[in-house]
TrEMBL record:
Organism: Actinophytocola xinjiangensis
Protein name: Peptide deformylase
Catalytic residues identified in the record: E132
Keyword Cell inner membrane recorded: no
Keyword hit for Hydrolase: yes
Cofactor: Fe(2+)
Domain of life: Bacteria
């Protein structure tokens, strides 16, 4: 288990929907540990497998004193309230913008041993669970920004030292603000 390099905006793996996990084996447990080690080393609130170049539906989180991982996650909003707050991403380092998310969610999935898991979160934890699940669908939080903010964000990204000049794409999330398919 080691800290792995994080894939940056422009890498096609970040725009590809991840596959469902079907084998709850040692390889999955090693992936969860690599995600955890990498997330913690970077001070992130969450990290999804595609950010390490692995196309599987797995993420780790450590947010508001709650930590763990989810395999094959889904989520639904627990009410119709939204929150507008600053959001960032380890795949878009050093840049943050306000993004609208559901305020409270329930996320369900499995742990690395195939046991069911349910997490209820509000505010920052809810934001994290939604953000990481979006990664598994090839969606970045940039896709959720309003047009004006997204245009300003893309300008900042193009000026960032780490940006390699990849052609940016915007994707529609398959999840509405309240969970489920759009």
């Amino acid at each position: 288990m080691t800290v792995q390099p994080i894939r940056l905006f422009g890498d096609p793996v970040l725009r590809t929907a991840a596959a469902e996990v079907v084998d709850f084996d040692r390889e999955l447990r090693n992936l969860v540990q690599d995600l955890w080690d990498t997330m913690e080393s970077q001070g992130g609130a969450g990290l999804a497998a595609p950010q390490l170049g692995v196309g599987l539906r797995v993420f780790t989180y450590h947010c508001e004193g709650v930590e763990g991982h989810l395999v094959n996650p889904t989520w639904v909003a627990t009410d119709d309230q939204t929150q507008l707050g600053e959001e960032g991403c380890l795949s878009i380092p050093g840049l943050y913008w306000d993004c609208v998310r559901a305020r409270s969610v329930v996320a369900r999935g499995w742990n690395m041993h195939g046991e069911p898991v349910q997490i209820e979160g509000s505010d920052l934890l809810a934001r994290c669970l939604q953000h990481e699940t979006d990664h598994l669908d090839g969606v970045l939080f940039l896709d959720r920004l309003d047009a004006e903010t997204r245009k300003a964000a893309m300008k900042q990204i193009r000026q960032a030292d780490w940006f390699d000049g990849a052609v940016p794409t915007i994707k529609q999330s398959p999840h509405s603000l309240f969970g489920g398919a759009v």
